[in-house]
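Shipment paperwork, digital attachment
Item: protein structure file
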Amino acid sequence: MPQQARTNTRLRAARVAAGYHSQQALASALSVGVRQVRRWESEAPPWPHPDLQERLTRLLSQTMEGLGFRAPAGRDSGPELRRPQRASASGVLAAVPLQSAAAMQPATVATDYQSVTRAHRRMYWSVAPATLHPTVLAHAALGCSLLPETAGQTRASVASALGESWLLAGRIEFFDLQEPERAAATLLRALQAAGEADDQLLGAAVLAHSAFIPAWKGRRDDAVQRLVAARTYARRGSAPAILLAWLDAVEAECETRAGNTRTALHLIGHAEDLLADDVDQEVGPEWLDWFSPVRLQAFRGDTELRAGHLPQARTTLTAVLEALPADEEKQRSVVLGDLAAVEAAAGSPEAACQHALSALDQLERTWYATGMDRIREVRRSLAPHQHEPCVRALDERLYGWSTTVSALAR
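Attachment content:
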């Protein structure tokens, strides 16, 4: 049996753990020839040039000695490392000492961590937010702990999934738990994790979500500034049309909140044009599951309502309700609430109450604080009709034992 060639097993192990499963993959990441990597993985690897030492140690998160190299006599042992990082007690990533080669996680940890992140994303649409939220936070804490034990592509994949987990936690805090200050801190962590992964599109999504927070408080200029940053990230990441259209929809929502409905409708029209011109229907990021052409029309219907264009809003929202997939239950409660608001503004309290009751039916199945907010707004607008039977029937449901207790508990 021929004797197996001896190799630099330390470098090979670090390469594989970092997600570079071939010598060519590492060569491409370092912008060197594959022959150079082959020499480094030989039994007696040559001492790399200083600039390659810097790139090797940064990419693989190991010292030169940890990668199996020995400095020639009279030469220093290579650059000091400042990475990887971990999470501090506040959840913000902070520098930590270098981990040894033995402590590095295998490349499979990225796939495993991503699979749980993906499962949480799907569960958001059906699991009670107060139940899901602590699980998502615990998963994010795990991701922060894994970062110091990963490098290269593996590290980038874990960091990207970590950013998505923080984003999901922030979405729950803002839209479901109605804790905007907490959401702001969580979204900052999501942005930092996206930066660790150099994930431009995820960074754009986080920044756009952060724009909702000042917009809801009436600080339009702050919201628009964050959207300018989000569009910059999207441009750097060559964002697909569906993500660019969502950014238009977010800005339209912020402008609507500020009373600038004409500007908002212009932005929605631009988003519609983007989607219409997307003949190749380029697929968006996997995590962009909160937006679609139908959701864009829901944005339009809400803006038309707030602009006082009631016939158009009624037509738009009715079409949205018919087109919504069956599993989009949270969005259905919002659309029903908007339809109730249209009828209340049109002076049709019975029709308004009918839609509001349907929304409450939906909320009993899948709770969504944003949907409940819509119903409460409708009830306030029905104050002139509060003695009519239909409004009293709505009150019976809105302030029944189960509904009231559930709302307070959540």
